[in-house]
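Quick one: C-alpha cells for this chain, please?
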Amino acid sequence: MCILFVYNGANDIESDFSLILISNRDENYSRPAQCMAPWSEDPCVYGGRDLETGCEKGTWLAISSKYKKIGLLLNLPGVKKENAKSRGTVVADYVKSNLKLLDYIESIKNYTNNCNEFIFVSVELGNLPDLQLEERRPNIYEELSSIFVNIPKARYGTRAHTIVLVTKSGQVDLVELSLKSPINIENPEWERNEFQFII
C-alpha cells in the first residue's frame, strides 16, 4: 500500500513552505521503471516512468512546472481486472494537460472504469484552496484551507497537533501539542504531552 503525506503551508505565515509532499511507492521489485527525471517529450514534466509492457509512459508521481500541477497515484490492493488499462496514464495525462481538475476528471471517467482500483491525488499550485471547500464554506474557506486554522472571530481553530510513531517492535511514541484550557485566543498557550509504551 502506498503512503502519502501532504502539508499545505500556503496560508501558514510562519512556514517557508507552501507545500510539502512525501510519498512512497510500493511495487513489485521486478517491475521495470525509470527514476524521476525530466520527460523527453515534455521537459517541463518531472516524474518516474513505468516501463512495464502495456503501461509505458505512465507514472505514479509527476509534477509540471508549466501547468503548476502535481499528480499522484495511490494503488488500492484488491481485485485485479482482466485486461485492465494503465492507471499511470491518468497521472501522466493530467500533468501534461492544461485542463482544470474537474474538467480532467470528467474526461477520464469512462477510461478509469476499465482500470484496477486506485486513488488519484492532484495538486494545482496557485489554484488552492479547494473548490468544494469554497462552495461549502464561502465566507471562511481561505482560513479553513490552512494546515493551521485560526479564526478568532468564530472562536474556532486548530487545538491540537498529534504525532504517533510506531516501530516494528511495537514501541509507540505519542506526542501531542494542545492549547491549554481555558483558551485565550489573544495569547494562546500550548502544552506538550509525550507518552511511550509498547503495543
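The chain has two domains: 3-124, 159-199.
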